[in-house]
Each structure stands twice: as structure tokens, then as C-alpha cells.
């Protein structure tokens, strides 16, 4: 018997409720166009469902209820009605834990679909915090869906994210869950909805037999063609809700015989779903006046689409150096943050850049500590074993210049290190600025001081002085 099935994927939408600028690569310079918004995603979902007569399942790989002002201000709750209107079938998570596990549990109880995590455990009981799987059925097919949450939540994220819970990779749990779904639940296909990151998921698919489809998240890959590893089809679909993944499957005798894939751009030309337009307005309108205020101008296109350094973070680092009087600054290598084309900068743009708005801090750190900190960060970003990759992009730096061999072993990647225009002195003490909890880990440095200014206020002050430029400086160079 031959059956047909369509899987839809949303990943790393980061709370972007409505249209926003997005960077699109081209043969020449990158282009900035408007894209995204849950009302357009809803319209695409419904169009595909109508055409496929409900032989469609839609999944969310997480990083959904955090990343914009309405999302963070409401601790994720503003997105619940919008997400329920999308009629998703299951999700997994990462930044969802930013509000603490109890708040996320509260959110999941309000959702009309299950949160799945085969790898999230209660510290006290050892039990799974969320169901490991669900079974989705059409007239002819039963599909077992297993979720894997981000393993890094309790390893490199703030401690509050994982209070009372811990995470594994999920690779050891998967074979037993797949066997249970195949042998006891009698499913025809096994789909994994994951937020480990594409390198980790490629390795996992190669190690674990029996996964038909793996929907990937976390690393913001725009896969125009699926990867096939150990007979597993893997797709990932960008970020910020600017893209959706569509995978059409032909299934015979409990196996995928043929497939086709499309990475769909959620373009401005798509007519939005009217019901979801109203729901989005309900989440955004209370904040629209505050967020639409113009706070300055950028001459540089601001984005976070590059691994070693990014213009968006250069602007942030310039602002906190200005606020603290330091020549050196560090921040996290976040991936999220919708681009800001050259021109006016609004308060909304600033909240997209750094939605948690932490305090600005200073610390005294030795040259030896600086080198160790950056070697550690490079290893977490470029570890040869994907399972040891533990973060976003390379830590963002201002006032230093590193020349690195990224292919080198751990601890031996940095070839040259300059600080303040001179070769790094391992015994010297340097004063650096950072955004609290996200720039210089607590084990490095001393005499930490939280200043009476937060990141967004620092950005506003900096931009108020006139048009800003934040060009790439070559702070971290691969050689």
C-alpha cells in the first residue's frame, strides 16, 4: 500500500510575531527584504493542509517563545494564542527554558499540542519532565514523533534555565524509544524533532538506526536540499520564521520510498491569515508605541549572520565600551536577532538585539585568562566531536585581535593575540566591559562590578550622539 504524507517544519522563530527585515544571500551583495510573521506562516500551513486533505503534520523545533520584547515581557505567554492558531502537532525546546522550568511547564499546559523531550529529566525523581514521544495518525499512516531538547541548557546557559532539571544528548535513549514505537505502537514512520544543532544531529543520525526523518534546529541552517545520513532525511529551515521546511513523502511498507523538499520563503507577498493577524496585534499593540520610537541611525547593516564577528554585536560592544570608558569588551555569540538595514534604528531593533536587557558590567582579567577564555570558546564552537559543540557563534570581542587556526586541537588554536594594540601580556591585568552573564564567564577575572546601566540604555545613549557605524574589524581572524 502506498501512502503520501507532508511534514512541515518551523524552527528558531525566536518570537518574531510579525514581518521583519531578513538577510538573503545573493550572487552579489546580500539583500535585505521583509519576511516572516506567524500570520503568514499560518496562511502557508492552511494552504498546504487544504491541498493535501489533512495528510499533513506541522512541527516546531523550538526557540519559539523567546527573543522579542512581547515574548520576553510576557515570559512567553503572549505567544500561546498565536501558536495554538497554527495547529502544530508537537514541539521541542531550547530558549523556552529561559523563564525557568516551572514557567515553561505552565506554557506547555496552555498549548494545544505536546512538548516532547526524550532527554530532559527531573533532578529529584529521575523521571522525564515531558513526554518523550507522541503518535500522529492519518487515515493510512501512524507516525511516531520523538522530541530532543537542546542539551546545552544545563551546561552553558544561566543556572536559572535548568533549576531542578538536567539534560542528556538523547542519543542513548533514542534506540529504545524507536523500538517501542515500531514494535509496540506499530508506527509506520519515526520522525525526530530536535534542537541539538545540525552537526550534532548529523552525527546522531549516523549512530542511531531507524530514524526516517530528523527535523533539525538550533544552528539556523537554510537547507535548500535535505541531507541523507544512514537513510535518515534531515532538514533545517533558517530562523526568525522567515522560512518553512516542507517535506513530501511517499511511504510504502513502513518505509520512505521517495521524497521531495522545499525551503519556503515566508515572503511579504504572502497574504496573512486574518485570524492570526488579530492575535498578533493583541500581542504587539500594547507595546507598539514604545517599540516604534526611533532612537538613532546606523550607517552599517547590522546582522548576526557570521560566525567569527558580526556588525550587530560590534554596535553593542561599541556602546558598552562607551558607557564604561573601557577599550575592551565581550558579549555572547548569539545567533538570533533580525537584521537592521542601514537607516533608522528603533527601540524594537534594540530589544531584538538583546531582548533580556542585562546590566553592563566590568571586570579585571589577566592576559592569561583572556587567552584561556577564548580558547575555551573556540573549542565550544568548533569542537571536532560535534557532541562537544556547546554554543552559538564565536564570542564577540572589541579591543582585541586574534589570529586562529580553527582546525587545530583544543587549546592550541590561537596563533597571535593582541590587546590594546599590543601583543597580549599574560601577566598584565586588563579592564573589560561585558553584558552581565553573557560575556566573561564567572570563573575568569576579579573585581566584577555591575554598573547602573543596562544594555539597551547604553545602546540608546550611544546612538543618540549621531549616526553609528559598526563595520567588521577582523577581531577574530581564521588564518
Q: What does the secondary structure layout of this molecule look like, with pairings?
A:
Elements: E1 2-10, E2 20-24, E3 31-35, H1 38-52, E4 56-60, H2 69-73, H3 80-85, E5 90-91, H4 101-110, E6 120-122, E7 133-137, E8 142-148, E9 165-167, H5 174-184, E10 189-194, H6 198-207, E11 213-215, E12 227-229, E13 232-235, E14 243-252, E15 255-265, H7 274-291, E16 294-298, H8 311-324, E17 329-331, E18 343-346, H9 347-353, E19 359-366, H10 367-382, E20 396-398, E21 400-404, E22 414-419, E23 422-423, E24 429-435, E25 446-454, H11 455-463, E26 476-478
Parallel strand pairs: 1-4, 4-5, 8-10, 10-11, 11-13, 17-24, 21-26
Antiparallel strand pairs: 1-14, 2-3, 6-9, 7-8, 12-13, 14-15, 16-18, 17-20, 19-24, 19-25, 21-22, 22-23
Helix pairs in contact: 1-7, 8-11
Provide a short characterization of the protein structure:
The protein is of the alpha/beta class.
Characterization of this structure:
It is a single chain. α1 (38-52) runs antiparallel to α7 and α8 (311-324) crosses α11. The strands form seven sheets. Strands 7-8-10-11-13-12 form a six-stranded mixed β-sheet, covered by helices on one side. A five-stranded mixed β-sheet has the order 5-4-1-14-15, with helices on one face. 50% of the residues are buried. The mean pLDDT is 97. It is built from eleven helices and 26 strands. It is an alpha/beta fold and 479 residues long. The chain has two domains: 2-283, Purple Acid Phosphatase, chain A, domain 2, CATH 3.60.21; 295-478, 5'-nucleotidase,  domain 2.
Amino acid at each position: 500500500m502506498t501512502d503520501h504524507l507532508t511534514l512541515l517544519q518551523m524552527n528558531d522563530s525566536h518570537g518574531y510575531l510579525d514581518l521583519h527585515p531578513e538577510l538573503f544571500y545573493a550572487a552579489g551583495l546580500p539583500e535585505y527584504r521583509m519576511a516572516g510573521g506567524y500570520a503568514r506562516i499560518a496562511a502557508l500551513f492552511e494552504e498546504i493542509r487544504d491541498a493535501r486533505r489533512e495528510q499533513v503534520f506541522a512541527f516546531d523545533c523550538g526557540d519559539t517563545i523567546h527573543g522579542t520584547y512581547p515574548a520576553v515581557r510576557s515570559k512567553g505567554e503572549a505567544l500561546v494564542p498565536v501558536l495554538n492558531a497554527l495547529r502544530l502537532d508537537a514541539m521541542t525546546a531550547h530558549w523556552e527554558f529561559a523563564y525557568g522550568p516551572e514557567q515553561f511547564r505552565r506554557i506547555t499546559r496552555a498549548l494545544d499540542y505536546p512538548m516532547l523531550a526524550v532527554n530532559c529529566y527531573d533532578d529529584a525523581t529521575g523521571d522525564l519532565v515531558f513526554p518523550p514521544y507522541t503518535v500522529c495518525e492519518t487515515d493510512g499512516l501512524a507516525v511516531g514523533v520523538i522530541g530532543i531538547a537542546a542539551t546545552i541548557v544545563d551546561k552553558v546557559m544561566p543556572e536559572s534555565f535548568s533549576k531542578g532539571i538536567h539534560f542528556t544528548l538523547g542519543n542513548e535513549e533514542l534506540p529504545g524509544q524507536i523500538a517501542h514505537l515500531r514494535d509496540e505502537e506499530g508506527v509506520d514512520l519515526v520522525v525526530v524533532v530536535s534542537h541539538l544543532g545540525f552537526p550534532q544531529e548529523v552525527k546522531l543520525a549516523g549512530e542511531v538506526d531507524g530514524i526516517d526523518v530528523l527535523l533539525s534546529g538550533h544552528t539556523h541552517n537554510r537547507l535548500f536540499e535535505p541531507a541523507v545520513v544512514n537513510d535518515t532525511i534531515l532538514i533545517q529551515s533558517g530562523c526568525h520564521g522567515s522560512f518553512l521546511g516542507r517535506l513530501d513523502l511517499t511511504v510504502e511498507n513502513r518505509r520512505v520510498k521517495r521524497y521531495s523538499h522545499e525551503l519556503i520563503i515566508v515572503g511579504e507577498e504572502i497574504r496573512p491569515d486574518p485570524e492570526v493577524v488579530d492575535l498578533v496585534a493583541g500581542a504587539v499593540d500594547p507595546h507598539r508605541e514604545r517599540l516604534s520610537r526611533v532612537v538613532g541611525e546606523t550607517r552599517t547593516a547590522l546582522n548576526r549572520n557570521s560566525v567569527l564577528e558580526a556588525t550587530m554585536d560590534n554596535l553593542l560592544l561599541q556602546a558598552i565600551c562607551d558607557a564604561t570608558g573601557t577599550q575592551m569588551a565581550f558579549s555572547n555569540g548569539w545567533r538570533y536577532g533580525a537584521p537592521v538595514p542601514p537607516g533608522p534604528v528603533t527601540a524594537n531593533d534594540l530589544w531584538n538585539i538583546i531582548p533580556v536587557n542585562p546590566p553592563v558590567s566590568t571586570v579585571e582579567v589577566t592576559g592569561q585568562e583572556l587567552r584561556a577564555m577564548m580558547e575555551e570558546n573556540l573549542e565550544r564552537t568548533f569542537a571536532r566531536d560535534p557532541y562537544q559543540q556547546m554554543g552559538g557563534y564565536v564570542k564577540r570581542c572589541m579591543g582585541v585581535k586574534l589570529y586562529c587556526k580553527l582546525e587545530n586541537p583544543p587549546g592550541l588554536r590561537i596563533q597571535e593575540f593582541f590587546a590594546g594594540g599590543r601583543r597580549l601580556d599574560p601577566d598584565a591585568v586588563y579592564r573589560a566591559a561585558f553584558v552581565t552573564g553573557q560575556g566573561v564567564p564567572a570563573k575568569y577575572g576579579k573585581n566584577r562590578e555591575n554598573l547602573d546601566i543596562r544594555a539597551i540604555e547604553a545602546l540608546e545613549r550611544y546612538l543618540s550622539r549621531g549616526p553609528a557605524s559598526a563595520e567588521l574589524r577582523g577581531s577574530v581572524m581564521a588564518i
